[in-house]
Specification:
One of its GO terms (cellular component) is membrane. It holds the Pfam family EcsB. 75% of the residues lie in helices and 0% in strands. By secondary structure, the chain is mainly alpha-helical. Helix 5 runs antiparallel to helix 6, helix 12 packs parallel to helix 14 and helix 13 runs parallel beside helix 15. The N and C termini lie far apart (52 Å).
């Protein structure tokens, strides 16, 4: 007989202890000071930029951002590999366990959604007549609906891209009609959401829990956390994953034909294929480019934050293959590996600087383009200088 309440309590306490242990290594006094100063400067620049805006399509852009964070509503189950075997016949007894996991995940996702709304609050107060309290209540309701649908998709009926796209589209329409105060159309969306919820619940009752899928989702979230922590400290529990990325085959063919140094070749392929390094670079670059077009001034500060976040998280690329026995076959010194890593990271920084500069030139002109390029390069040079000093100390 298993008590789902006590099981969740033990797992949750162990999870919080692990997060706190790694948090002490990541958020030290120096990093907190930098984050505090960066957030303060960014808030002041952002507020001044919003005050200078005369027009902004807030009712069109905000629903897509709110819907993006509302649609992704996975449940942290804290499952272990052995649970697939031992808990399979105990599904009914584990309902309190999964209920508490859903409540915890709900508040975590809701906290993130509220942070996003607070970031948009200056724009909301200036370009929308809807009450912020009504929007926050709507976020709570919509988050609960999305979590209910996604839990049934992940745990029972299976996950597909088309239902995910439909759910995202319904969230966008819901927030749009809410912001423009079209309550009649919003009522139609609510009726459709109720129908979808009833349909998903009816299908979910016919099948049992998909333990393999739940375990795979939980391991993916755990490894994503470990990869983030690995940028600050070594994580012994991190598992490496490799992705094919068939659409980048032409790049790999060019790498095979170019006679670059062994470690440089290794780091370049690792950046494109291993973990989520390339995805991280693409997401932060896309976010920075969007805000370059959105903000009327002060884009250099936001670009600095994006480039710093990219460079810091890519530092774990250097130790990705640490301890691999095949590296002992390379008749090369450790300094060669360090030099190759510096070249690859600097090339990534130049690429990001060029992308941000092109966006700045299109949106703001030559002066902003030059200042953006300079800011990004200085950020990467400072990070590389830190890496060099750390290498000398080692």
């Amino acid at each position: 007989m298993i008590d789902g309440k006590q099981l969740w309590k033990k797992r949750f306490i162990a999870y919080v202890a692990e997060v706190r242990r790694y948090g002490r290594y990541m958020f030290n006094d120096h990093l907190l000071l930098v984050l505090f100063i960066g957030m303060g400067v960014g808030a002041v620049v952002y507020k001044r930029a919003v005050d200078e805006l005369m027009s902004f399509p807030y009712a069109v852009i905000a629903p897509f951002i709110f819907a993006l964070f509302s649609t992704q509503s996975g449940v942290r189950t804290l499952l272990k590999e052995a649970d697939v075997v031992f808990f399979l016949p105990l599904e009914q007894q584990l309902r309190p366990y999964f209920w508490r996991a859903s409540i915890y995940s709900f508040f975590v996702h809701l906290y993130v959604s509220f942070i996003v709304f607070v970031m948009f609050l200056p724009l909301h107060l200036k370009f929308s007549e809807q009450s912020p309290l009504v929007v926050m209540i709507a976020m709570m309701v919509l988050k609960g609906w999305n979590m209910f649908i996604q839990w049934n998709e992940d745990a029972r009926i299976g996950r597909h891209l088309f239902p995910l796209f439909v759910r995202f589209f319904m969230n966008v329409l819901f927030f749009y009609f809410l912001l423009v105060k079209q309550y009649g159309f919003m009522a139609v969306i609510i009726l459709l959401m109720i129908f979808v919820a009833l349909y998903v619940e009816r299908r979910g009752k016919k099948v049992g829990l998909q333990w393999e899928q739940l375990l795979a989702d939980e391991q993916r979230r755990v490894q994503a956390f470990y990869r983030f922590v690995h940028a600050f400290v070594d994580v012994p529990h991190m598992k490496h994953t490799v992705k094919k990325r068939k659409w980048l085959r032409f790049v790999f063919h060019l790498l095979d034909r170019s006679h670059m140094r062994p470690y440089t070749y290794l780091y370049v392929r690792t950046f494109f294929r291993a973990g989520d390094y390339f995805g991280l670079f693409a997401r932060l670059t896309a976010i920075g480019s969007v805000f370059i077009f959105t903000l009327p001034r002060g884009v250099e500060w936001f670009v600095l934050l994006c480039s710093y976040a990219t460079a810091v998280q890519l530092l774990s690329l250097r130790s990705y293959h640490r301890g691999h026995p095949l590296l002992c076959l390379y008749p090369l010194l450790s300094t060669e590996a360090h030099q190759s890593f510096v070249r690859v990271l600097f090339a990534i920084g130049v690429s990001q600087a060029v992308i941000f500069s092109v966006a700045s030139y299109i949106a703001h002109g030559v002066f902003t383009m030059l200042s953006t390029f300079f800011v990004v390069l200085v950020c990467y040079i400072v990070v590389l200088f830190y890496v060099g000093k750390k290498q000398e100390a080692a």
